[in-house]
Each structure stands twice: as structure tokens, then as C-alpha cells.
Amino acid sequence: MAHATTVDYVTVIATESLSKRFPRVTALDRLSVDITPGVTGLVGANGAGKSTLIKILLGLSPATEGRAEVLGLDVATRGAEIRERVGYMPEHDCLPPDVSATEFVVHMARMSGLPPTAARERTADTLRHVGLYEERYRPMGGYSTGMKQRVKLAQALVHDPQLVLLDEPTNGLDPVGRDEMLGLIRRVHTDFGISVLVTSHLLGELERTCDHVVVIDGGKLLRSSSTDEFTQVTGSLAVEVTDSDSHPDGTAALLAALTGAGLVSRPAGRAADGSPASGHVLLVDLVDEGTYDVVRDAVADLGLGLVRMEQRRHRIAEVFRDDDGRGDGHDADGRGGEPAPQTAWGAGWSKTPGPRHEQQNGGTSDAA
Amino acid sequence: MPPETRTPAAPGRPQPAQDVIHNIGYRTYDGPRLGRAYARRSLYSQSLRGAYGLGRSAKSKVLPMILFGVMCLPAAIVVAVAVSTKLNKLPVDYTRYALWLQLVIGLYVAAQAPQSVSRDLRFKTVPLYFSRPIERVDYVVAKFAAMASALFVLTATPLLILYVGALLAKMDFSEQTEGFAQGLVSVTLLSLLFAGIGLVVAALTPRRGFGVAAVIAVLTIPYGAVSTIQNIALHSDNTTAIEWLGLFSPITLIDGVQTAFLSATTSFPGGHGPGAATGAVYLLVALALIAGSYGLLMRRYRKAGL
């Protein structure tokens, strides 16, 4: 593999045509993906195979074919060693209500092999790091969802793993709790130095948290790229103009003018922005500094009023939008460095049916 | 100066959130990781303590402690009577004691077996265990051993009280020691058997209430049925039937084994306990039940991971 470009390249998780078939369903279909240290988002709709992948990575469920390595250990043969170095936060509730967070996390630390004294010390540390203070001595039955999620995160971190697998950690949280949890996840990597694999069905929250995003659908790899590639390499400019008497539809006139000037631009769909005015917003691909001048001159020449012109990062949802049609085109080299092909922008723009898009949009609209 | 003295809480102004995450530095852990065997031992000791409510809420200590007291109280009374009246023999056999208080043992299993396994299933803690170094076999072995140990503590402690009391009353040492040893073998078998049956039944349902009811039913209904049919057989003078019928309930199974091999007097109607040959079948059935419960538990947890 030609990955030798980065000096500190290490894989945390590597899978090679990993498949998992049940009698009736194929949960994973020849999934090959390499995940590097950092925060990695694993995105997919419910039933896309995220949980199955986590089970295989923990060495709890044998793959039908293919192989996988976690921290350089084969999941098929060295599951116990992997589980000693990896933390896991399940999606569902897993806390007995009649014990306190401290007792529970101490017990879980010992189950990971920590001696009693170390288990207690690290429990106190970890609970403080996730933001649980006095309430940690109370039975967990009385905790709020946010506090429960913190305890679940704490039990995954208490043995100082090298990697944590977080299954839908923001499930059931309100927007504030969601932001706090995402910040905490970010800190798990930046401050604690622990790599994170976090699953979600919401792309929007992952773009703020993750260095890298892997999208799977129906057990297949849809896309695997760094968040920067999506949101920075293909930066764009949002332009909103007024209409004038000579140009009743100012937006359309500007679109024509810009296309004439050699700039790739398109009307922003309502969904892409979420604001009521987005029907009048043009998204112009940012080529270089000169793009601003070209847009300014074009608006001035047409005699339109410039309402706003702002630089905007693409959101992951937009980039993935056009992947639906040609989903497995990137399978072979998931980490391919090429930016999203610009010509494909228009193609999938109008045909965005399906619940998955609803969810994605729901997740991104508040990111603006 | 602490912030609260410097800035008194202004009315109407929200207090700073208490759950702010302070960064006081993360410490990595470089100490030993003791691995799978240690994790299994930890689960064992946690489950054993839990079976007596230790490390849990005060409420969950009540029932096991009461049952433990009820189990020991008769032994203490027997000892007190024996010492004060200077008997030269204990009024109750070591092997008979557990059979005599089988209802208490049954209640204890019914209360604590679901506590041990149904809780983990109900609150879905099982997947967390399997995301740690332990395997399915470790979980089952730890839970089984913990339940059996808890039952052994429950059943052997009164025997110990009897034994110590008997020695204090200056009864014959070798006779008492032999009886005590036979009693311990008997309650060991009983603990394993009851733990196995209790855990299998409890692991079938994540609902604790169902588990309690089901364990009571499994332990008492066969006993009632067996005793009734044995009494009918006694009236029709069918002593062989009495001998064999004891195979069909857990407590009569133990009775049969100890009658055949541990010189116990049977509580079967008419005193028609099994002889050595039939007793061997009793022992085999008891061991098969213990092994079977272990097998069923392993099967039960095959799909319970994650």
C-alpha cells in the first residue's frame, strides 16, 4: 500500500475485505478501511453495519471472511489482548440503577485488569475528567441522560486504553448535552492522547469533532477521507444579491455572469443552508483570492445589490450527497486524496430523497 | 480567595454551571494490567459479596442477612441446649440440618440467583463484561462459583456452629469431626446443585420477579410432587418406588446421595432411602444436573454478548 507519505503513519484499525454474513442479511460486505490515530467518525444509517463492525473489532464475533487488526493485533486470535487496550461505550443503557457511579466504574476498571488501588484512583480521575463530581456517590438510577452518558464514557476510559470505540455517544442528548459530549470526545484525543472511533448517524456533529470520517452503507464502504479534505480543499463562497428592475431574477443573472467568467457556481439548495433566504444564495467555488474580485465585479456590472458574501466551508453532508449514485467507486482506495469531483455537484442536487438525507440535513442545519 | 466570597450570587443571575469540565491534566496509566484470571476473580468476589448485599444498597442487604440469621439461629439454639443440658450427642445430625431448613435455602436461592444474573441481563451490563478481557466461560464460571460459594457459606456456617458447640460440650471428638466432614460434603453438593438450578432458571429471564417465582417453583413443586407420590407408594407398600422417586427433586436427590454414602438417616417416607447401588445413580444424576446447568448457562450467554 502506498501510504508511506506521512512520517507518523500508524494504523489503529485496519480491515481487509472484511465481511459478515448472517443467514438472511449481509451486515458487512468486503469492507477495507484503514483508520489512523485521531478521532474517526463512523457514519451510517441504522443497520448500516456499524455495531457489527465494532463487535468484530472487539474480537467478539468472528468475521465470515477477510481479516481485521486493531492496534496491530489480529481480532480473530488476540481478542483478549485487544479488549485490554481498547475501551468500549455501548449505545444502549448499561448501568445498574442501584449502585453508584464510583462503585460501578471501580468494578469495571478491575474487570479490565487494574489492581484495586489503581482502579480506585483512576476511577476518581476519570469521573472528574468526564465532569462528574459529588453526584458520583449517588445511585445511578437518579442520573440524567447526560450524566449516564458520562459514566458510560468513564467506564470506557478508566483503564487508559489506546483506543476507545464509542457507539452513538450523543444518542438521547439535548443540543447542549450533545455539544458537551462532542467536546469531551475531542478532548479524549487532544488531552488524553487516546484514539477514538465514534459512530453516529448524524454527519453534522462529526464534522466538528472528527479528523477523519468513514461512511458505510449496507455494510459497504461508501467513503473514507479526512474531514479537512471535505471542508477545506473545496471551500466555497456564499453570495446573496438583490433583484433589480433590469434583472428581475438577480441570482440567475449572476449565475450566468459567473459561469461566463469561468467560475463554477450553483444555487444553494434550501437544505444546504437552512435559512429562508437560501433560495437566493449562490455557492461559488473558491479558486484563489481573485475569485472575490471576479464576484464583486460581476455583481457591480449587473448593477445588483450585494447582500452578503461570505466564505463557507462545505459540509460533509454536501460532499456525500453525490456519492449515493456511485457509492462503491471509492472502495479500492478509500483514503484517496482527491477532493470531491466538482462536476458531480449538480448531479445529485435535486434528487435527495430518503430518510438518510433528512437526518443529515437535520444534523447540519445547526452547524451554520 | 474563593470565588463565592468575592462575587456574591446576584439574584436573577444564573449561577455558573456546576458541570464545567476542568482540565487538571490527564494521567496515563503505566501500572500492571493483571489480565483475564484477575478479572475473573474480581467478578467472582463482586458477585459473592453481592449475594449478601455487600457493596450494594442497605436495602439489598436485608433479605440475605435475615435468611442467613434464620439459617444459623436453630444451630445456635441447639448448641445452647446441648451445652446447658450436657447432652453427649447433638439432637440434630450434621447431614440433616440443611434438609431441615431447605425452605430457607430455597428462598435464598430464589432471591439471590436472579440478583446475580438477571440484573446483568436486564440492565444490559453483560456486553460491558464481554468488552473486557474475560470470555464467556469466565463469566459463567465466576457467577456459578460465586453463587455456589454464597450457598456454601449459608449452609456450612450453621454446621460450623454445631461443630464448635459440640466440641465445647465435650462430645466425642472423632465422632463429631466425622459427622461434620460428612455434613460439609453434603452441603457442598447441595450448594453446587442449587446454584446451578437457580442460575439457569434466573438466566432465562431478565425480569427479576419472574426469576424469583420461577426458582421457587422449580425447587418446591418437584419436592411437593415427589413427597406426595412417595407417601402414596408407602401406603401401597411399594418401597422400591420410594427409593427411585427421590431422583426427581433436587432436595430428595441430595437426601438420597447422603443416605447412601454419608451415613445420613433419610427423610424419605418410612425411612426407605436408597442403598449404595441406587445411591450411585443419585450421585450421577446430581453431578449430571450440575454439569448440565453449567452447559445451559454457557449456551445462554452465547448470544448475550453486545
UniProtKB/TrEMBL annotation, chain A:
Residues 320-336 have a biased composition (Basic and acidic residues). GO terms for molecular function: ATP binding; ATP hydrolysis activity. InterPro entries: AAA+_ATPase (IPR003593), ABC_transporter-like_ATP-bd (IPR003439), P-loop_NTPase (IPR027417). Residues 13-243 form the ABC transporter domain. Keywords: ATP-binding, Nucleotide-binding, Transport. It comes from the Bacteria. Belongs to the ABC transporter superfamily. This is ABC transporter ATP-binding protein.
Automatic annotation (TrEMBL), chain B:
GO terms for molecular function: ABC-type transporter activity. The chain crosses the membrane at residues 62-85, 97-114, 144-168, 180-204, 210-229, 241-264, 276-297. One of its GO terms (cellular component) is plasma membrane. It holds the Pfam family ABC2_membrane_2. Keywords: Membrane, Transmembrane, Transmembrane helix. This is Membrane protein. It comes from Streptomyces cinnamoneus (Streptoverticillium cinnamoneum).
